[in-house]
Amino acid sequence: RSKVDARGSFRFFEPEMDARLQARRLFEVDLREAVANEDFEVHYQPIYCLNAERICGFEALLRWNHPVRGRVSPVEFIPVAEELGLIVPLGEWVLRRACEEATRWPDGLKVAVNVSAVQFTSASLVTAVRDALQATNLAGHRLELEITESVLVANPGATTAILHNLKMLGARVSMDDFGTGYSSLSYLRSFPFDKIKIDQSFVRDLCAEDGTEFIVRAVIGLGASLRMTTTAEGVETEAQLAKLRAEGCDEVQGYLFSRPVPAAELPDLIAHWNGAKRAIA
Ligand code: C2E
Ligand code: MG
Ligand code: MG
Ligand code: MG
Question: CA 45, CA 266: separation in Å to the nearest integer?
């Protein structure tokens, strides 16, 4: 009898398991095809400098618009691309695209490119960055590479070497999503980061009166002491902006200024925030 039950439940679960596996397989097939066809877009979100009161750069954010699936979030497809080993070609494509695009911007505006942990530890990252800079003729100091805390924990020794090699090319390195990972404050001191990006979860609760503002104040202070630029992510309200300004945060980024937009919309954004005449003069 128990045999029958076991078989029955097995049969019951089988089609469901199958459906999930098949859906995942189809997702992988679509993603592979999209990478092979370069079926992606890069959108750009302004990073606003509070001291200069103007846009100082843009973060490149990958977009996948599938004919049937519609917009697929990078939060969904980046982990799959990492598992399939597709993140290296995909990451190199974004890097090249973003550097190329940045050469069209006025005033030495910078471009920030996200680097996944898998791509960071792949042997080819430093070469890919060098190639992208050479091929596009973009000055190294205009490129910022955003890295999350997870890469530090995995292999601190290798990380330091890679960061130094990237900096030899003139590129800047930023610690992305700071405060969400497992790394301790002492990690920041041990690595040559130029910038700390305060995760949007802290900015969201900045006005909640639950102590978050003290954490943000501490991180901004830490950045100042370590001579690192501090950038707040996910700024959506004037109240958040006012607090960040008062705390001495260097840069802000979020929907309050602009959502990430296609490259074609950048001239208007730059004209709006930096003034068309100032940009040309
Ligand atoms: P991230 O690097 O921390 O990027 C910031 C995310 O916050 C972006 O989401 C951006 O659209 C969103 N954002 C910006 N301002 C606001 C705001 O005011 N409010 C809210 N709620 N969100 C805001 P997105 O584009 O969906 O990207 C999510 C994550 O996917 C990124 O987080 C990054 O980790 C990853 N990602 C995106 N593009 C790439 C890429 O080219 N390569 C790699 N390796 N990862 C990427
Ligand atoms: Mg980022
Ligand atoms: Mg971030
Ligand atoms: Mg994030």
Answer: 9
- The CA-based angle 239-233-79, given to 5 degrees, is 145
**Integer angstrom CA distances of residue 52 from 20, 78, 139, 211:** 51, 34, 21, 29
0.95 surpassed by complex ipTM: yes
Please tell me the distance from the alpha carbon of residue 117 to that of residue 146, in angstroms, as a whole number: 10
Q: What is the CA radius of gyration of the chain?
A: 21
Centre of ligand 3 to C-alpha 233, Å, is 6
Dihedral sign for Cα 71, 75, 76, 82, please: positive
Those residues whose beta carbon sits under 5 angstroms from the ion ligand 4 are 177
- Whole-model pTM: value is 0.93
Please give the distance, rounded to the nearest whole angstrom, from the Cα atom of residue 94 to the centre of ligand 2: 13
pLDDT tens digits, 36-81 = 999 999 999 999 999 999 999 999 999 999 999 999 999 999 999 9
Q: What angle do CA 260, 273, 71 make, to 5 degrees?
A: 10
Tell me the pLDDT tens digit for each residue of 115-151. Answer: 999 999 888 999 999 999 999 999 999 999 999 988 8
Q: Looking at the CA of 112, name the nearest ligand.
A: 2
Q: Which residues are 42's β-sheet partners?
A: 62
Cα–Cα distance, 233 to 225 (Å, whole number): 20
